[in-house]
Design goal:
The protein is an alpha+beta fold.
Length: about 210
């Protein structure tokens, strides 16, 4: 009796099994390598993350508060510069003074600053005149005086300044002129303050007036 030879068939199946096992082992190895790489990357990121102590947090918050306070100071200064009108002063009859047109002129060679106010009034009254400046070299309070204003006229006041004060004047961005009207209601204060923001300067001379 002749028996069939099954060895070629068994060899083929054995090779197929080995191939499947090999591919499975390779897939497991690749998956393990990928997981190891991700864990290593996560560990590296964790090592690079800065450690912030509570003290550093407090210092950072203190710096933020300081910056906010500085911003508030700047805002307060800007609000102070906004006091008054940049247009002509036109006051209601209750304020006695009717119109006022102010101008400031400075001369470095003479060391003088002159304030001029052309005005008209509903009725003669005593006026307290006060003016000051703000600019690149700081603020400066100038003349403060009282005068009797008639029905119409021109008010003039001149100040002689030191070289340091004159440097502030020539660097001024705005002059504020405030008129305190004797016998007028308190609400007139809002109408009687004018800001001079238009500047013309040339060779040691400068003038400030309201925008046209």
């Amino acid at each position: 009796m002749i028996y069939p030879d099954d060895r070629p068939h068994l060899t083929s199946r054995f090779r197929a099994t080995l191939t499947t096992v090999a591919w499975a082992l390779l897939a497991i190895a690749l998956l393990a390598a990928l997981l190891f790489a991700r864990q290593a990357q996560a560990a590296a990121v964790g090592a690079q993350a800065p450690i912030v102590s509570p003290l550093e947090d407090d210092e950072f918050e203190a710096e933020e508060e300081s910056e906010e306070e500085g911003d508030e100071e700047v805002e307060d200064e800007e609000e102070d510069e906004e006091v008054g009108s940049v247009g002509p002063l036109l006051l209601p009859p209750e304020c006695l003074l009717h119109t006022a047109e102010a101008q400031v002129a400075a001369s470095a060679s003479h060391g003088t600053v002159r304030l001029t106010i052309h005005y008209t009034s509903y009725a003669p009254s005593d006026i307290a005149v006060d003016y000051w400046l703000k600019g690149g070299k700081g603020s400066l309070q100038l003349g403060e005086t009282k005068r009797h204003f008639g029905r119409q006229g021109v008010f003039r006041a001149e100040e002689h300044l030191s070289d340091r004060a004159m440097s502030k004047v020539l660097a001024a961005r705005v002059f504020t002129v405030q008129l305190g009207i004797g016998g007028a209601p308190s609400f007139c204060d809002r109408y009687s303050t004018q800001r001079l923001t238009t500047k013309h300067a040339a060779s040691g001379h400068a003038t400030w007036s309201r925008p046209r």
